[in-house]
Automatic annotation (TrEMBL), chain A:
HAMAP family: UPF0276. It comes from the Bacteria. This is UPF0276 protein ACFSKX_17305. Belongs to the UPF0276 family. It comes from Microbulbifer halophilus.
From TrEMBL, chain B:
Residues 6-91 form the Putative DNA-binding domain. Keywords: DNA-binding. This is DNA-binding domain-containing protein. The lineage of its organism: Bacteria, Pseudomonadati, Pseudomonadota, Gammaproteobacteria, Cellvibrionales. One of its GO terms (molecular function) is DNA binding.
Length: 277, 256
């Protein structure tokens, strides 16, 4: 499987509210991330928009429905469509989540939690092998937010991810907000989590906002909180120069507000990546 | 069968049905976590329907729409990998739930057809000149055997209400819907012009001809049917006019 070269830059998600900004102006981002499934269509305007954006910016295809942890295996039609889209767009890379979304009968369209067992590890690795073979490229796997763990868990999530990377050769998309959310919900240490990952395989970091509460929920509907910024600084110092993307999927503000938040990531990364004199 | 298959099937069943018993080794934290996943699932699917069926929602009101969408998701849990398909069959759900107001199901069908046409395969329509040129280039063109290729995403359904008046009256919040019955039955025809889904109302006789041709019938066979209904002289004129309309509306993308 071919390697994925590191890419250092700062990007935003392409959301419908900002189509005109990206099509008509010069948005100061180094890449654009899109939800793959929104463009895995036969034709029409979405693909035309994406092609025009791709002419201006590198694009990352970020999926939410591969169901990489599905015990039923992967959907071959889905893989074929994703491969076709990747062939058209030539993305920096393709990514999805450590989760499952469907059974043979139904699709939840939510990132459902996996038991962290050796049996689940075997299935995830088989599915990633199949996905990378079908796509003809290595992919990035993202750590999810989770709201429950299972009584039969046999390992930590970071050990699970490290094993997946070791066995499949995939790369990691480290979502520091997800680390924070899951740590709040399950009581683990965020520094231990990040240090336990094979950080040389991290190619991208996600930043997002969440809703606090008895169970913290990953909502992508507000700005990044101070604790997640601190975790980002910690992660960037350990990972080195990688791609950073700010996610906002609900209550989407005007583009200048998101760009200002992205500038904060640039500032933190610039500080943490400074070589000491 | 591996253990994860059964575990995921049980989890999905509990996600879809909150009445299901929880596993004996789950505690309150597990139940609370599952409730969040269930809420995420229901919210996402109902919101997907709300996004696809904006006009249907304006027609029936927000609370009635939410009840209908929730009912649809419970009875027809999504199975496709794309959330865009969650609204499949919602017009049938509306037909049952709003049986006394058949215009609701008609608008829901129209919104769904427009939604699908929006992302249908791209295909360039034939102009009248191009159509004539292609036909002329085939020296032995036998019009009897001609088959037409229509725009991808084309959809037809019978309607009893004037959707050409109802559709625009539902374009913004606060407008009074214009609900008018048609004097004669028509079909709504949906397709995409460039990037924009569009629709028109067609008389039944034209719609039946379109449907037959779309399903692979030859021009000769459909014209024979038309002759049976209208007589030869009228049928010849009508068929020529229909073909002209279809070409000018960008409905025909090829012949075979």
């Amino acid at each position: 499987m071919s390697d994925i070269a590191p890419f250092h830059g700062f990007g935003l998600g392409l959301r419908r509210a900002h189509y005109a900004d990206f099509l008509e102006g010069a948005v100061p981002v180094d890449f654009v991330e899109v939800i793959s499934e929104n463009y895995m269509v036969e034709g029409g305007k979405p693909l035309r928009v994406l092609e025009q954006v791709r002419a201006k910016h590198p694009v990352i295809l970020h999926g939410v429905s591969m169901s990489i942890g599905s015990a039923h295996g992967l959907d071959e039609d889905y893989l074929a469509r994703l491969k076709a889209l990747a062939g058209l767009i030539e993305p920096l890379w393709v990514s999805d989540h450590l989760c499952w979304t469907r059974t043979s009968a139904h699709n939840s369209h939510d990132l459902l939690p996996l038991p962290l067992t050796n049996g689940a590890l075997d299935i995830v690795c088989d599915n990633i092998d199949r996905a990378q073979e079908a796509l003809g490229r290595a992919m990035l796997l993202e750590n999810p937010s989770s709201y429950m763990t299972f009584p039969d868990d046999e390992m930590t999530e970071w050990d699970f991810l490290a094993a997946v990377v070791r066995r499949t050769g995939c790369y990691l998309l480290l979502d520091v907000n997800n680390v924070y959310v899951s740590a709040q919900n399950h009581g683990f240490d965020t520094t231990e989590y990040i240090a336990g990952l094979p950080l040389e395989r991290v190619r991208q970091i996600h930043l997002a906002g969440h809703a606090p509460g008895a169970i913290v929920i990953d909502t992508h509907d507000r700005e990044v909180c101070a604790e997640v910024w601190a975790l980002y600084a910690e992660a960037v110092a350990l990972c080195g120069p990688v791609a950073t993307m700010l996610e906002r999927d609900d209550r989407i503000p005007a583009l200048p507000e998101l760009l200002a938040e992205l500038d904060r990531a640039r500032t933190i990364a610039a500080t943490d990546l400074e070589v000491p004199a | 069968m591996n253990a994860l298959v059964e575990q995921q099937r049980s989890f999905m069943a509990r996600l879809l049905d909150e009445e299901r018993m929880l596993p004996a080794d789950w505690n309150g934290r597990h139940a609370a976590g599952l409730a969040i996943y269930r809420n995420n699932y229901r919210t996402a699917t109902v919101e997907a329907l709300r996004s696809t069926f904006e006009r249907t929602q304006r027609l029936v009101g927000e609370s009635a729409f939410r009840r209908a969408a929730t009912h649809h998701v419970i009875v027809n849990p999504p199975s496709s990998w794309t959330l865009d398909m969650a609204g499949e069959g919602f017009d049938e759900t509306c037909k049952q739930l709003f049986a006394k107001d058949p215009e609701v199901a008609e608008i829901a069908w129209l919104e769904w057809a427009m939604h699908r046409a929006f992302v249908a395969r791209d295909a360039a329509p034939l102009s009248a000149q191009a159509f004539t040129r292609i036909c002329a280039s085939v020296v032995d063109t036998n019009w009897e055997d001609l088959r037409l290729v229509f725009a991808p995403g084309l959809a037809l359904a019978p309607v009893c209400h004037d959707l050409s008046r109802l559709w625009p009256s539902l374009s913004g919040a606060g407008e009074e819907p214009t609900i008018l019955s048609l004097e004669t039955p028509h079909h709504a025809l949906v397709w995409r012009q460039g990037e924009r889904p569009v629709f028109v109302l067609k008389p039944d006789i034209e719609a039946h001809m379109l449907a037959a041709l779309e399903n692979g019938a030859t021009w000769g066979d459909t014209c024979a049917t038309l002759v049976g209904e209208l007589g030869e002289d009228t049928a010849v004129i009508e068929a020529g006019q229909m073909l002209g309309h279809w070409l000018s509306q960008g409905l025909i993308c090829g012949i075979r």
